[in-house]
Amino acid sequence: MMHFNTKMLIRSLQKAKNAQYVFRNASSGLPDLTKDRYPVNRADFATLGDKHLQFFRDLLGPQRVITDPAECEGYNVDWIKAVRGYSTCVLKPKTTEEVSKILSFCNDHTVAVCPQGGNTGLVGGSVPVFDEVVLCTSQMNTIYDINDTSGVLICQAGCVLESLDEALAEHGLMMPLDLGAKGSCHIGGNVSTNAGGLRLLRYGNLHGNVLGIEAVKPDGQIIDLLSTLKKDNTGFHLKHLFIGSEGSLGVVTKVAIHCVPKPKAVNLAFVGLPSFENVLKVLKRAKRDLGEILASCEMIDESTLEVCTGNLKLRSPIPEYPFYMLIETHGSNNAHDEEKLNGFLGDVMDSGLVLDGTVTNEPSKMKNIWDLRERITEGFILDGYVFKYDVSLPIEQFYSLVPVFRQRLSNHPDIVRITGYGHLGDGNIHFQVSCKQFSREILEKIEPFVYEYTSRLKGSISAEHGIGFRKPKYMKYSKSPESIAIMKDLKKMFDPKGILNPYKVLPP
Amino acid sequence: MMHFNTKMLIRSLQKAKNAQYVFRNASSGLPDLTKDRYPVNRADFATLGDKHLQFFRDLLGPQRVITDPAECEGYNVDWIKAVRGYSTCVLKPKTTEEVSKILSFCNDHTVAVCPQGGNTGLVGGSVPVFDEVVLCTSQMNTIYDINDTSGVLICQAGCVLESLDEALAEHGLMMPLDLGAKGSCHIGGNVSTNAGGLRLLRYGNLHGNVLGIEAVKPDGQIIDLLSTLKKDNTGFHLKHLFIGSEGSLGVVTKVAIHCVPKPKAVNLAFVGLPSFENVLKVLKRAKRDLGEILASCEMIDESTLEVCTGNLKLRSPIPEYPFYMLIETHGSNNAHDEEKLNGFLGDVMDSGLVLDGTVTNEPSKMKNIWDLRERITEGFILDGYVFKYDVSLPIEQFYSLVPVFRQRLSNHPDIVRITGYGHLGDGNIHFQVSCKQFSREILEKIEPFVYEYTSRLKGSISAEHGIGFRKPKYMKYSKSPESIAIMKDLKKMFDPKGILNPYKVLPP
């Protein structure tokens, strides 16, 4: 195992932590405007004037048309502060009909629109690039129905994921997806970006779990695909066009999701391992021995964990090891689950695959362990600037980017750490190069090499974060020219004027 | 419980069994030609001539261009003998490139093409309506890869579902789907029709399980979407356009599927119940108590079971009851599974919900029980003529069609039985009205009422069988005009000349 001299870098980080980030404007704490940083030109959309604002105010009332520049700011910048638009108008519709009227008007007047949920995206998809009107779903947060027998939830797009989980818990149900951003992200945004997350291994993806959606096309037409049925083979399966197209083809306004029974027994193991080779072996045994109760199988490397233990001062329940795994089980009988889990853990300890570990079903202890995984992104922000990649790779090569880049970028003084962690069970790694400050030199050593490398291994250059504003030109590394041509034809068909979430997803 | 005097009807059936079916041509055993029975006009496609045949023979060699009328017959008629075309040419490509060349040529020469897998469809989607060239995938049956670690299978479209399951078993894996037609159906057809089946309850649908496909557009362009990754958010999720569009937008040539571990423990319970009310209660308890090991939950009503015990002379392991349920568990630890299952069965017996039952994990006994479920369609053919509907309904109304129609059609002398059975756990019932012979009078009492009824309850008029040739005009009962308009735009975009599987899926 090659170590990246992390301790030394962590120390230098501690000193650098309060320094000004190059990617931010020191006076305001905000990053530069996207238009000033990236080579992108504003398309020929209308500039917002009084007649537009008057229409919006007549429709929504003055309270739900935000034009105060200070208040608009939060809607213009993404949460990792990487991109920033300068919209002067944020709209907060409450109903599908209001969304329809807004889009119809904007389409007629060639006003560009940026749909926004919880604004937790990581690829710049949820904030304006220039002055697009922000259509925010935060007031569309009605839960219409939770059916105990069928497990179907129907709600508006602006419901926060965690709130949905809380409401479902009262019915003995649980959302099939879970992510670190659950306290802020909206279900409409989850669906629009085909969010993956921590439980996909067990409960599958949104293309499988979303039973129906309602969406509004850019011309204002409402498309009712809000089926609540598990099986419905009546024509082309249109809902999937809206799942994962990042608000390019329409604004998702309602969703029906097949929820799962809230597990009666939840157990979490946190283990330390000496090598990635062992990580792979433990994954294979977990699948075999835990079978139907395996719910999550995450990996964290040593240097990643240090952003939590070092930057965020979280405590790890076990000493330092080159690799860690979080293995969570969900089941209906705790005695059975514990027997399976203890058998599995005994086996991987006895065989020397795992060096150390802890297992718990106490909620507070589980939360402490999950914090070590879920707060990683937050912890990295304190490193300075993070080049963050979210790729799928064949499982055998899951971790290969890290040693490759440690070699490629060795001895660069600005680098804090090069690390990998993520959804091992799904073959989806988050790969980071963190630096004291933004460096174009480092960027150019990473990109496009990281995409070329991923493409050579037939991986995906964006496993779950999407394309957004920051990756359209790299889509070619995961999609063929023929596929991209079809996407462009679809965009033309759904949005001939291109008003919806422009400059994003599709390559120019 | 209202009983439909089934015994009496069974007796009359036994006498009628050898009579000539009105829907068949007595001399040949074949149904009338579709063009003579249904009000449909041939579109302005080319009629096949020597130049076309010469091209096909040059491309495929004479062995894989079938023009012998007797040999073509089997490709012209569906297996329930409800529709029949008169194609004079069946093509059997082996490679994607051959499919591409065939479609490109047919598109250039405006020759209509009917793609065909195992020809096990139930809505007339897989046979020609007129003289469309049949593009049969039976020789595209190569398995490219089975990955033990990731569980990913990559194969050609013409692989038979059961053969795939056999190949996977050697790797400790299993297909996520299973259906009665498994011995004949092709995986390409399964994907193209979004087949559901018996394990969907546990393993989810094909939109969730298919990782990638390769398809050929009607103009011959090969679309490579053959990802093997569980997560890939790089642009619009195009593969879903081909899953369930019944060969209207392209011919699926390869698939990558996420397969599941073959369960170490399989147990099957077959129970008798006094009422549908009890069926619903047992479903709810099965979900609660069997949780993660529940793999199938099927319901059969008394009158349906009699097509197996009466028509097919199969033996039921328990006496007669108004309702039966098949409950199968898949797990990784047989002791745990048996404990859960025995606890559940003890509970539903003690509480009087279930009157009788048998449980087994012996493969031969399980097969005998599954035969009672899987051979129902075959058994119904012996009733004479079957009006067969495949609908999704809200679970509370799952069985409601049967009493409604027993009342609506009471005292009609031609009726053998009115029954329901199916995928209870997925809300998908197969509803039948079987008659001694085809009767337009009965048909008109069933349709469109059955669709109107389903639509009023927000059900699906085709849960898993699709639209095919027989249901386009009823699609409106499950899909809005806006959705149908988008489907038509998509068809125009993918297939401007309309050569691929014409007269099907989309309403005229």
Structure description:
The structure is a homodimer of 508-residue chains. In chain A, strand 10 and strand 11 (222-225) form a beta hairpin. Helices cover 34% and strands 20% of the residues of chain A. Chain A is globular, with a radius of gyration of 23 Å. In chain A, helix 11 (276-290) packs antiparallel against helix 13 (334-350). A 7-stranded antiparallel β-sheet of chain A has the order 17-14-16-15-19-20-18, sandwiched between helices. In chain A, strands 7-8-12-10-11 form a 5-stranded antiparallel β-sheet. In chain A, strands 3-4-6-5 form a 4-stranded mixed β-sheet. By secondary structure, chain A is of the alpha+beta class. Chain A folds into 4 domains: 2-20 and 265-376, Alpha-Beta Plaits, CATH 3.30.70.2190; 34-136, Uridine Diphospho-n-acetylenolpyruvylglucosamine Reductase, domain 2 (2-Layer Sandwich); 143-261, Uridine Diphospho-n-acetylenolpyruvylglucosamine Reductase, domain 3 (2-Layer Sandwich); 383-467, Alpha-Beta Plaits, CATH 3.30.70.2740. At the A-B interface, helix 9, strand 11, helix 11, helix 13 and helix 19 of A face helix 9, strand 9, helix 11, helix 13 and helix 19 of B.
Secondary structural class of chain A: alpha+beta
Largest sheet data of chain A: 7 strands, antiparallel
Largest interface, Cβ cutoff 8 Å:
A-B, 88 and 88 residues
Report the uncertain regions of chain A. Answer: 1-27
Alpha-carbon Rg of chain A, integer: 23 Å
**Strand line-up across the major sheet of chain A:** 17-14-16-15-19-20-18
Percentage of residues in strands of chain A: 15-25%
Characterize this entry briefly.
Two copies of one chain form a homodimer. Chain A is α+β, with helices and mostly antiparallel strands and about 500 residues long. Chain A is about 35% helix and about 20% strand.
